[in-house]
Amino acid sequence: MKRLTYRILLNREPEGGYTVTVPALPGCVTYGENVDEAIAMAKEAIELYIESLVEHNEPIPDESNTLEYSITLDKAV
User: Fold this and answer.
1) Which residue among 1, 8, 44, 48 is the one 20 to 30 A from 29 at the CA level?
2) How remote is the C-alpha of 43 from its chain's centroid?
3) How many domains does the chain have?
4) Domain membership of residue 33 as a residue range
5) Residues 20-70 pLDDT 10s
6) What is the CATH number of the domain that holds 50?
7) CB 32 within 8 A of CB 17
8) Quick check: 65 and 3 in contact, CB under 8 A?
9) How many C-alpha atoms does 32 have within 13 Å on its Cβ side?
10) Per DSSP, which regions of 6-71 are E strands?
């Protein structure tokens, strides 16, 4: 069994909860009422997405060799 790694982005919604996207898997989007639920939903969405790729003999993306950094800039507006 191969271990696959994916980044997920959680965006807080104005009405509450979090929308989750998976940059390496186009169209893989889910939602959770809180951070823990959003992460659990993302895991399930990724698993289903990968199952579909396997069924259709499509390549499976993997971000295990991707490094990510966040840079914060202070800018006068």
Assistant:
1) 1
2) 8
3) 1
4) 1-77
5) 999 999 999 999 999 999 999 999 999 999 999 999 999 999 898 888 888
6) 3.30.160.250
7) yes
8) no
9) 18
10) 9-12, 18-21, 29-32
Q: What is the pTM of this model?
A: 0.84
User: For residue 9, what are its two tokens?
Assistant: 């982005």
HSE at residue 76, side-chain half, CA atoms within 13 A, is 0
Q: How far is CA 27 from CA 15, 20, 43, in A?
A: 22, 11, 14
Task: Report d(CA 34, CA 44) in Å as an integer.
Answer: 15
Residue tagged 């199952």 (tokens) = 51
Which tokens hold the place of 23?
Answer: 């940059």
- Per-residue burial over 3-27, b if 16 or more Cβ lie within 10 Å, else e, is eeebebebeeeeeebbebbbebbee
Which amino acid is located at 24 in the chain?
A
| Whether residue 77 has pLDDT greater than 80 | no
